[in-house]
Amino acid sequence: MIEYKRSRRRGLLKGAAIAAGAGAMAAPMLATAQTTATLRFQSTWPAKDIFHEYATDFAGKVNAMASGKLKIEVLPAGAVVPAFQLLDAVSKGTLDGGHGVIAYWYGKNTALALWGSGPAYGMDANMVLAWHNYGGGKALVDEIYKSLNLDVVSYLYGPMPTQPLGWFKKPVARVEDMKGLKFRTVGLAVDIFTEMGTAVNPLPGGEIVPALDRGLIDAAEFNNASSDRILGFPDVAKNCMLQSFHQSGEQFEILFNRTKLAGLPTELKSIIDYAVQAASADMSWKAIQRNSEDYLALKKQGINFYKTPDAVLRAQLVAWDKTITKKSAENPMFKKVLDSQKAFAQRAGQWQNDYSVDFKMAFNHYFGKNAKKT
């Protein structure tokens, strides 16, 4: 009996030793599995702009959901490369990813600007995203980037509110007022305003206000009340013209180096997919909150806001028609994207216009001049 107990004790101790050894071997394996993959991103925006904040918001969602397995670090424009060199830097692996707008790559293929510039056949930004995700747009972006031998994966997200015509030293009252102006815009909007008689300079976001201040340009558009206020537009111009078709359906683009993304585990790639969707919704909500606050703040600051005259809006549509006719003849891919967009817009646009109520009626009922005070 005594010998049996000793033998059993030796067996238990031996089993414990084996288990301890197995645990010691598993420890480094577990540590390896939990090693954080770090991706270095750069945005095309100055650090103080709300757009850079949107980029860090996306990164924050990925980092939180990845639980230490993946970390995206976002640098502002110019930290590694100039804003307009971001696409090439991501493709080459100089950066693992980036945040910007697809219209910035207009110089590589004019069709890329169709995801941001122009009236999009009457679609707003959210409808353009619907076309992109469910109407064939995403496959067309992939086809264009592949044709350019760019090693990138593109995610479009974040439908932007309609952008103003821009900031002017003098308000625009008629189409003729646009002629001869030295004007800043980007993408196919360059062609729209050129067709309308302006002298266009496609400056990056961080260079616009200094150029306005020095008189290098007479007027400029950027995007929204929050960005415009933070970047200093009200310091150099006092008139802002609201409503325009030049960029009424734009979205943001999140870029990944394709090889780097492919090397991530399936779990992390899924997290990125869903983080894009979550960031898109969150950005939309934040834009309404912040843009409306900053719009009122600019009014209190003494900025004059004017509705862009209908004659100017109609002139934009005419200029757009001339632009897309010319670009379609020059670039078969341009026409291919337009045809896809048009087919989706005709169906989805009719549905939205027929189903949507006029929200201005309700707003004026409660807040208009003749609204009853309760």
Task: Tell me the number of helical segments per DSSP (H or I, 4 or more residues long).
Answer: 14
Biggest sheet: strand arrangement = 7-6-8-5-9-11
Mean pLDDT: 90
Instruction: Give Rg in angstroms.
Output: 26 Å
Counting copies of identical and different chains, the oligomeric state is single chain
Helix share, percent: 40-55%
CATH class category name of the domain at 36-158 and 250-289: Alpha Beta
**Which CATH architecture of the domain at 36-158 and 250-289 would you pick?**
3-Layer(aba) Sandwich
Annotated CATH topology of the domain at 36-158 and 250-289: D-Maltodextrin-Binding Protein, domain 2
Distance between the termini: 94 Å
State the shape: globular
Main beta sheet = 6 strands, mixed
Characterise the protein shown here.
This protein has helices at 2-33, 50-66, 86-92, 125-134, 137-147, 189-195, 208-213, 225-231, 233-236, 258-262, 266-300, 310-330, 332-355, 359-367; strands spanning 37-43, 70-75, 97-100, 152-157, 166-168, 182-184, 199-200, 219-220, 239-242, 252-257, 304-307. With 374 residues, it is an alpha/beta fold. α6 (189-195) links the parallel β6 and β7 (199-200). The N and C termini lie far apart (94 Å).
Summarize the structure.
This protein is of the alpha/beta class and 374 residues long. 52% of the residues lie in helices and 13% in strands. The protein has a six-stranded mixed beta sheet, covered by helices on one side.
Please render the helix and strand layout as text.
Layout: H1 2-33, E1 37-43, H2 50-66, E2 70-75, H3 86-92, E3 97-100, H4 125-134, H5 137-147, E4 152-157, E5 166-168, E6 182-184, H6 189-195, E7 199-200, H7 208-213, E8 219-220, H8 225-231, H9 233-236, E9 239-242, E10 252-257, H10 258-262, H11 266-300, E11 304-307, H12 310-330, H13 332-355, H14 359-367
